[in-house]
Amino acid sequence: MKLRLKALLWAPRVCGVALCLFVGMFALDAFSEGAPFPEALAAFVLHLIPTLLLLAAVALAWRWEWVGALAFMALAGLYAYDARRHLEWVVLIAGPLLGVGLLYLWSWRHHDQLHAPR
Predict the structure, then answer these.
(1) How far is Cα 18 from Cα 30, in angstroms, rounded to an integer?
(2) I need a labelling partner for 33 at 20 to 30 A (CA). Which of 45, 70, 95, 113 fits?
(3) Which domain covers residue 11, as residue numbers?
(4) Model confidence over 84-115: pLDDT tens digits?
(5) What span, in angstroms and rounded, lies between the C-alpha atoms of 11 and 108?
């Protein structure tokens, strides 16, 4: 498989996992509030729910790229609508979500070429 096709196949997957790690990093805020450990742990798990949703989207998109395109672009739109008063939040979170969604869309559009027997 040509290098460009390999990059097209792997770029959305790698970026999706990297985005999950990025969003998951924000869950660590739960431990900085000075709350007792059991409460902080519960808050940490609660803050990891968006990351788990993104991981589920990446897992489904590993096989069906169109699911990743739809999920990531829909999540970008939902987040942009919800955080519309904070442009910097929209750029920081919805921007990468949209970018990964577009990568999955691009990969899906070239699915036959990427998965053709060699």
Answers:
(1) 21
(2) 95
(3) 3-114
(4) 899 898 899 999 999 999 999 999 988 777 66
(5) 12
